[in-house]
Amino acid sequence: MIPRYSRPEMTAIWSPENKFRIWFEIEAHATDAQAELGIVPKEAAKAVWERGGFEVERIDEIEREVKHDVIAFLTSLAEHVGDEARFVHQGMTSSDVLDTCLAVQLTQAADILLADIDALLAALKQRALEHKMTVKVGRSHGIHAEPTTFGVTLATFYAEFARNRERLVQARRDVGTCAISGAVGTFANIDPRVEEHVAEKLGLTVEPVSTQVIPRDRHAMFFATLGVIASSVERLATEIRHLQRTEVLEAEEYFSPGQKGSSAMPHKRNPVLTENLTGLARYVRAQVIPAMENVALWHERDISHSSVERMIGPDVTVTLDFALMRLANVVGNLVVYPERMKANLERLGGLIHSQRVLLALTQGGVSREDAYRLVQRNAMKVWEADGKADLLALLKADPEVSAAVSAERLEAMFDLEYHLKHVDTIFARVFGES
Amino acid sequence: MIPRYSRPEMTAIWSPENKFRIWFEIEAHATDAQAELGIVPKEAAKAVWERGGFEVERIDEIEREVKHDVIAFLTSLAEHVGDEARFVHQGMTSSDVLDTCLAVQLTQAADILLADIDALLAALKQRALEHKMTVKVGRSHGIHAEPTTFGVTLATFYAEFARNRERLVQARRDVGTCAISGAVGTFANIDPRVEEHVAEKLGLTVEPVSTQVIPRDRHAMFFATLGVIASSVERLATEIRHLQRTEVLEAEEYFSPGQKGSSAMPHKRNPVLTENLTGLARYVRAQVIPAMENVALWHERDISHSSVERMIGPDVTVTLDFALMRLANVVGNLVVYPERMKANLERLGGLIHSQRVLLALTQGGVSREDAYRLVQRNAMKVWEADGKADLLALLKADPEVSAAVSAERLEAMFDLEYHLKHVDTIFARVFGES
Amino acid sequence: MIPRYSRPEMTAIWSPENKFRIWFEIEAHATDAQAELGIVPKEAAKAVWERGGFEVERIDEIEREVKHDVIAFLTSLAEHVGDEARFVHQGMTSSDVLDTCLAVQLTQAADILLADIDALLAALKQRALEHKMTVKVGRSHGIHAEPTTFGVTLATFYAEFARNRERLVQARRDVGTCAISGAVGTFANIDPRVEEHVAEKLGLTVEPVSTQVIPRDRHAMFFATLGVIASSVERLATEIRHLQRTEVLEAEEYFSPGQKGSSAMPHKRNPVLTENLTGLARYVRAQVIPAMENVALWHERDISHSSVERMIGPDVTVTLDFALMRLANVVGNLVVYPERMKANLERLGGLIHSQRVLLALTQGGVSREDAYRLVQRNAMKVWEADGKADLLALLKADPEVSAAVSAERLEAMFDLEYHLKHVDTIFARVFGES
Amino acid sequence: MIPRYSRPEMTAIWSPENKFRIWFEIEAHATDAQAELGIVPKEAAKAVWERGGFEVERIDEIEREVKHDVIAFLTSLAEHVGDEARFVHQGMTSSDVLDTCLAVQLTQAADILLADIDALLAALKQRALEHKMTVKVGRSHGIHAEPTTFGVTLATFYAEFARNRERLVQARRDVGTCAISGAVGTFANIDPRVEEHVAEKLGLTVEPVSTQVIPRDRHAMFFATLGVIASSVERLATEIRHLQRTEVLEAEEYFSPGQKGSSAMPHKRNPVLTENLTGLARYVRAQVIPAMENVALWHERDISHSSVERMIGPDVTVTLDFALMRLANVVGNLVVYPERMKANLERLGGLIHSQRVLLALTQGGVSREDAYRLVQRNAMKVWEADGKADLLALLKADPEVSAAVSAERLEAMFDLEYHLKHVDTIFARVFGES
């Protein structure tokens, strides 16, 4: 995570202010519950809410001395609350605060990421509807295959990010648990009802059984899900990079007046945003591995996960947030060239209709083997002529072909509309409307 | 995946026989649907089911020539079916067969893995109930913290694998889709109702929009989920390895009569199974990265994912299946030493009760700061005496302590039962019963 | 590692026969040294070489019983050698055999990989010389930049694989050590001179200090190096995939007569080999992570690395060997289309010369800022005309441009030869000749 | 990379000041060379050195407008240099500056890391010599094996980090190249002698052939090497964590007076530094994957690597620097408990001598099989008595044993000195002295 690839909404989640604010709420709600249970005086709970507060600088100062962040926070809090502060944090362990806080931060981050995906979905849907019938060639292996539409292409990304949205909702639920269970998770010094109260107040669920910490399989699953989302970002970014290649140029990132593509070559307009997104995806994805390595903590916990999370927590959420919003903008502003799509489609002298001719031949009684051979030998001539030859003409002139399929039927095989008849079906499946 | 770490149930899924059997079913069901729609003769569909068949060797032989596995399969099939075979596969593309087959194989694999997890859950539950009240020390940072029970420890693993089970159910659903949509996913040459029919017959859902292939975010999510499960395997394996250390020896892998721990040192009994599981977990986890790299295929597809999946499909499912069953056996046969647990617990002269003394002091009016200092200075003496000193005696003799808390109350702070009072709560949360 | 992506030379290294043959040599050489030192009878050493032998099936049979592979091997060996066999393996530990054997296998594998790289380097050099002056456009960001030659492109890969060769030589040296140091590496029961003797006989160096095992940072470095080589494989594969794209088609994988590119579309010729290599590279690269996780073994060793190595040892070396040889063949047989290279180069109406015009303008006294603006505004017109406009003509017609640079000088800026003047320099640097 | 885990020396390398200072030097040296070649006026080169300068804030300001960092820098530079500035950067491309700068930064970082390793090596050597003969038990699989010394253990780490040092020297050389070759690496607009001059001045070697960029296999190798070093950090950290476990407690991280191990449990002294290092190692290691994914840039370059490097460049070097220095301190200040080492060694009633008894029996004429059985059956009794039984006494009392080996000889087998006789050999190998 670096400022260059950060948005303030997400970095704010990882600010000391937000962290200590959440710590404060955890401690205050826990004191409430303790008071309700008669463990601590009701006045103490009231005092925390009324007089409680903290200053980041003061906490830092204390931490430099005691080398323990939660103790530093509690000391600072006590300076505001006064004597009743000694009832705060009673029976709790630092991890109760730290892990529950991380759960809150990760759900806050998930909420922003969900909003990002919504923005991206909106952009994809708008552009998909706009280009529902913008015909272009479909490519497998980078080679022209058969016609499709740019709207269908965008629909595949819409469907993919809709799945990612569901996965993220799931991962948010998985990671959003509260643990207030004491030093080794036995509730020896704190009633389980405190945990239930804090969980409810913070919008979390109760961790059924914790050790000292919330189990890290939850976090591994969360980061793995973000890794999958990043991989989808890469797929869409790669698609656009391909479409912008000089020889293809079917779409282009928006290039503002006055922008410079290259310091040396004034003619350049490069897909730098999507190339950038490709890199960001690599970065986000890589953090899945340490998140998984964090699962196998020793016994009731060791603290090896902590340094990893201090880094990848902000790194991954901030970078992915930035990437998703950048991608939503790229899609929204993408310059599309339908004429180039059409020109490219027609580039290969009708080769894209080879399958239909094959089917016509088999329906005309030719064996699959022979039909394949007949079409292939004519198609290869078109390849070799670099698209300057015309498949239909060659087929008509091939006596073996014309013996099986009439010229009229052959012509019918080259109808573009044929390929578009189920676009409505696909759109209905993906967008729930025809 | 190597025979050493394989079970036949799972390797069978990846056998040529199973693969071609699924291919056959896809083609036969698709031909049925085509016949129902009037695209191909009903006799053709009937012929496929009645006369259809294949031989693995024959397919291999043909593939060596045509260098295309699906064409080889169809040729072999045609040798059985005869002339009607030309109606098979009509309008379909190889990926329709390959990707739908992979979806079936991965759901089959998921079913075995779910059964494995069930076996592991059963073993964990049985041993947890057995040792519900077997007291042992809880350790944070590898250092004695406070008492817990071995049953609670096992309950944390039960809860973790129960979560993993849910995640796998989800991942199975995610990856279990059927695509029969033709060369670039437009259904140009095949009616979407064929896809719907095949999906239903094979227990899959319909892929809303495919390109030539089923989108690989689904597979990435599947393998990421298996990576998380492998990480949980590592956590449980690591726990057992720790418990078996010579100095700890609270539990031990079953060691059969006649077994040899070391070729050189006849006295050795090593936790080799759980060390092995640690390695297997590393292997499974690593495959998440290429699975994620597979997502960003070019345009309507490239085939870079295929070689990866041919390897990690079997590798990951076979190895994880083996690991889960090995782990279930290790847990089921684990030799537990409650006396050693008790002995270790008492090893440190009562240090494990330091928090309660701290709380008693604060309740006795001492500030948190001072209370900490008082307990710590006595605790450090016990550390330095290597557990030969007694914390309770030291505290009683410390005038500052005894001024705040009576000897009687101090003694009450060293009660072991105090730590066990919520074990029932935890078990009720985890196992749904008290 | 699967048969589909394997070559027999490399798989042979990982066969039981080769492994046990190496074990035999280790034991026999060690017994020789022991005899020389007077620890065991000279007859024993002689008997091992003369009567020694093993059968894989017999070893498997014994291992099923004793569950220890080295003990099983020694038992089988004893069945051949007779009574003197009791002097074999004296003072050694299983890991002395296993780890030294792995070192031999990895150096054998490295030798094959070095030969593979040599084959690839030879193919790259031959094609580079062939196309030293085959002009094509250089592309940054997938966008036409400036002219280069296909030979220069191939030279970059030659240089990269030459670096990889050096790295592999280094990694081979790093991993090729012999340890015969006993149960915890102290040589308590075996003289260090035995280790020295075995190392020398097997072409290894002595491990300066082992625990029970050879330290795994060596293996991590080895697999990391293979991961880098795999990444270079991906770069070359990706380059070829790009060149074969329909719209680019400057080069093509060899497509044999009778080959079928697609079961459905007879016109297809797909870069399937290089796509396949892209996937193989992902697979090889991913194994770097578990190899690094293997480093932190507990104390004098745990066995968690073993299962990983049993899998990734063959997986990585076999797959990378296959990939390198496949790549050498692809390069050797690559069909190159110089005319298409030329046609693509000219596609953009001279935009590729924009930098030279920029320099001419600044040399003509125009500020860099203004010069950039002048060139860019004319270049953008060519972009918008999809290459149908001509940059030179536009510049000549631009009064601000012609005020600074004469038409004659402008024309000179569009000279292709200008870009080729240092190709000799580059070739001399890379291939050591001009 | 976060401030918590950063040292100012290393972060300074990644500061804008350092970066722009390097850019300035590259441009100034390049202008010198251009002047020497007569391409630009000598006054221009002089002016750059004399009047040249930049302000970070001003560059940022310009970049916000032109969205191109190198152009922003050059504009700022021109504001200082004046008119002659137009001769700066002539014929160069942004990547010439960026990539050569990164090479300088990575070699600067490598120099700090080498110094870190030296500090660690010094600490390891000092403690190894100090504890050369401090006897402790060697453990395989976490189980007591045979005696070794703590000095030997430290020597293994010394040897490992000495290897890492060599690897880093290699990686530094690999990554330290200079490229000034223009837009697609053909030197069309810049003489190769400029590159040679700049390389020499900056202490780099010449990149034999670049595209637009320095090939990323160099960087992948660099980060892979740091990943291996991080894995060694993890091994040493893990060793110390194990030694500090309550039940083992043979060594302990230094715990300062006034430090608090736990907010809740005043008795705790936790190995938090080495647990932290374990996490940092995971983080550093994970970045190897995106560094490898960066290799396969498209054609003459795409910019996907850039965002990754902007993050992992600082992340990895800063974090590893911090980790190495923390580790050097931990080793230097490690509190070692030789008495506990001795006590643990003796804990198992002499089991650690089982191999020698085995050898004595075979030398006494007993078959290896029988000897194993005889020792194992007595050893198991000691295990079961939890070390309260005595192996020597049991063996003496076993008639089958005493028939083959005399009591006197049995006693000799339990001699501790026997295991230490080659410690000198090992130290001579590792430290080059006896």
Query: In the CATH classification, which architecture of the largest domain in chain A applies?
Result: Up-down Bundle
Helical stretch tally of chain A: 19
CA distance, first residue to last residue of chain A: 42 Å
For the largest beta-sheet of chain A, the strand count, sense and barrel status come to: 2 strands, antiparallel
Helix content of chain A: 55-70%
Top CATH class of the largest domain in chain A = Mainly Alpha
Question: Domains counted in the coordinates of chain A: how many?
Answer: 3
In terms of quaternary structure, the protein is homotetramer
Unreliable parts of chain A:
none
Radius of gyration of chain A: 30 Å
Spatial arrangement of strands, main beta sheet of chain A: 1-2
Interface with most residues: C-D, 92 and 92 residues
Structural class by sheet pairing and helices of chain A: mainly alpha
- List how many beta strands of chain A DSSP finds: 6
CATH superfamily of the largest domain in chain A: Fumarase/aspartase (Central domain)
User: Could you give the order of the helices and strands of chain A?
Assistant: HHHHHHEEHEHEHEHHHEHHHHHHH
The backbone outline of chain A, from C-alpha atoms, is elongated
Provide the residue-averaged pLDDT of chain A.
95
List keywords for this structure.
Ribonucleotide Reductase Protein R1, domain 1, 434 residues, elongated, Adenylosuccinate lyase (chains A, B, C, D), (S)-2-(5-amino-1-(5-phospho-D-ribosyl)imidazole-4-carboxamido) succinate lyase (fumarate-forming) activity (chains A, B, C, D), two-stranded parallel sheet, Fumarase C, Chain A, domain 2, two-stranded antiparallel ribbon, Fumarase C, Chain B, domain 1, 3 domains, mainly alpha, homotetramer
